[in-house]
Known about the structure:
Elements: H1 2-30, H2 44-47, H3 69-72, E1 100-107, E2 110-116, E3 122-125, E4 130-131, E5 135-140, E6 144-152, E7 158-166
Antiparallel strand pairs: 1-2, 2-3, 4-5, 5-6, 6-7
Amino acid sequence: MLAEYRLKNSLGLFLVAVTCGIFFSANAATQPADVLEPAEPLSPAAEQVVLYEYILEGRPDPFVPFLSEKASTPKINPDEIVEEDIDLTGMRQFEPGQLTLVAVLKANDKKIAMVEDVTGKGYMLNEGTAIGRRGIVTEIRPQQVLITETAHTRAGKAIKNTVIMRLKKEGDQ
């Protein structure tokens, strides 16, 4: 394999050498060897060598990248609320604003709130039930349900918001 490669390369070099030799010998036959042509005189502009110097003062360095790493990275707001990656199952599928409080029941020490979604399907809430992305039912009162929503920022700060669901009386809208 190596011998075959060397043979092909040497044949190629031989052909190039023969072709160049024929070309140069044909050129030599048309011009006598002892006659030389005079060189053209240089123009005055070509005789002067112009040196160029780049002055950096007041100019940007041409070799520095246009975008710096600081400018290309987005600024992160530490007060931005971070969304938690959780499975939304059960009552976590509904935000408090999507539900209507229809009844509050009290049996012994246990309080239960009954809510409806927009389709009329009913659900029961107990204290401590998770609701929505960030909410937890904190207290059930005779006429209302308190839901505390806790959001966390990038800096780790907890932001709490209380949502009140009120029991509507007949005729209220």
